[in-house]
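User: I'm curious whether this sequence folds into something compact or stays loose and floppy. Could you predict its structure so I can see for myself?
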Amino acid sequence: MKTVIGISLGASSQDFEFKTTLLGEKLLVKRLGTDGSLAKATKLVKYWDKRAAAIGLGVLKDKYKVGAHRFVDKDSAKLQAAATKVPVTTGGQLGDILREWSVRHAQVELGNYFNNAKVLFFSGLKNYKLAVSMADYTDNLQFADPLSQLGVPKLLTSLQALQLYASGAHYVRDWTLPAALANGPVKEWTRFLLRKAAQKASVIVAPVHELDECTLEELAGKTIVTSTVNDERMAQLQAKGVHLVIDGAPVLQGHTLGPDLLDAMICAASGKAPEELLEDDYLEIIHALQLQPRLIYPNGFKRVNRFAFVIHPLSQEYFKQIKPIELLSQVSPPVLMNSLEKIMAYAPPFVYSHVTGIQSPTGVEVEGWLISVGGTPKEIMRHSPEFTYRRLLDAAAVSKSLGAQIMGLGAFTKVVGDAGVTVAKRSPLPITTGNSYSASGALWAAHDALLRLNLLPAPKGKERIKFKAMVVGATGAIGSVCVRLIAKVADEVYLVSPETAKLLALKASILKETPDAKLFLSAKADKDIADMDMIVTATSGAGKKVLDIMQVKPGCVITDVARPLDLPASEVAKRPDVLVIESGEIQLPGENIHMKNIGLPKGVAYACLAETIVLALEGRFENFTVGRAIKWEKVREIYKLGLKHGMKLAAISGVNGPFSDEDIAQVRELALAARARNRRSRTKLTKPPLIEVKKRTRAPRKTSTHATSQV
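Assistant: Here's the prediction. I'll summarize afterward.
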């Protein structure tokens, strides 16, 4: 049996030994700690040089403090030089493989986990290969080498900067730290800056012992990428609120093996010196031992994804909420506000609100940022699309720097130009307009409104509520989506569009998906509009009259999903007995949601914002809804994902904002009164002629003489 020794500068209290078989060789494996004593480590190396088959050197500080960094290479060289007969390894090559594997494993296993993550490396030089791997997923990399090595209050922010620093070409390498300050104020200052950088990061890459000085403030909610975390260290990280520990060091027979000890075992079993081991040798061993990186949640499962959403002021009234401008607007309102509106269109994007507290029933959480651009709808439409594209790309750059993994476009920013296509091509982040969930939310709200109005016949037994629905603009991108969804729940669906050939093709397509659907086709809405319980308008009429609202049945629910709206406020006002819906607002999941006022109750969001949040919760960092052609599969998918993550319909909104219960009750009352009047009117028009004749014959009988003369 061959003996393999791991000599560590860490605590002797963590020593262990076990027997195992590797590549057909029986091994006795021992780990020996020296409590930080380099002299004791040297003696152990010399002793076991005559007795062991291979020695692994764990040159990292394990528990007791001997400085803030690794021991310099000369100390490692001295230890290696003390052995003359057996292979000695620090496991550097294997350690690089295991750490890189752990990161790539986590990215696959957890699904896009490191996408645009803010990653802080305590040392980029010592983790260069890992940094290159991490750069495949995020550009948000920071390296603290100048801070920790030279005391320079500067973080490197790219791989290129790290390469220049390593070669001595980066300007910070010219920094010379005064000897008098080396252990004084500069040391404290560098520690302070490192802690601040740790607070802003979402992922920290560091040897586990270098995290000893970090507190709950720096590590709470963080992901730690490290190696060889034992139970004692894990308990410390748990107390400091760490979310996830990604450890490349494998566990064998209940013991965490450092790369040095595992590498020594491979040397002993294979009979090869460390420099003779190739990547294929390591792959064979990893496969044979069925090793896996460790993904450990010290405080239970926790995952926080990140999003950004672009908003903008809808009118000049927004600017009046700013105190100095409010005072000035009272002096010269028209001139000042018009000029201010034009100036603010050029303002750089800024963070309007940091959003926290959104938590899915699955346990996943999201945080996000509402990014405001300054243009009102008037200014957005006054400029060319390229002007707005530049504002949105600036917002995307801000969002990326914050660590957002997807960005949504709100209000008029999603309808400008090609509706997000160009922005998605140029943006460093995935883009969604939210239109899929907006369409879903509008139909969701319409169905809910039908139930709340309670004007339909009550269903019998397990039957669903029967109603007739019409989609005006049925062959359009949004309209065809609405038809497909409504056909699954409505008793009859009327498809309206002047594109007759497309109507025929659409009907055939829907019947393949929903064979029992009852579909009727028409080129104009007025033909059947009076019998509809629900009407969806989804045209691209842009101000053209698409239906006569005066012909609509009292109590009908009209859902206007067109942008701009098919029914202006002036048309809606003509029929207070009809419920015209513009959108459905969504109640976000979570008990302690923090978000600045966006004109809705606490915890409630517009459907387009909710789509961005749903995608973030699901970890779907992709261009989901862009362009004007909305796919009904995505409308259905985002609806199902919303239910999975606890989204609920919160409010039904019209052209004047959300409807209250009193508003809906008033529409119901007016609708019932109108229907009663219509019934009385129809009764008068349809009375049998016989009744009228009797009335005429009865009157003359009162004076028979006159009756005879008239006859």
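Summary: Residues 661-685 form the longest helix (25 residues). The CA atoms of residues 390 and 423 lie 9 Å apart.
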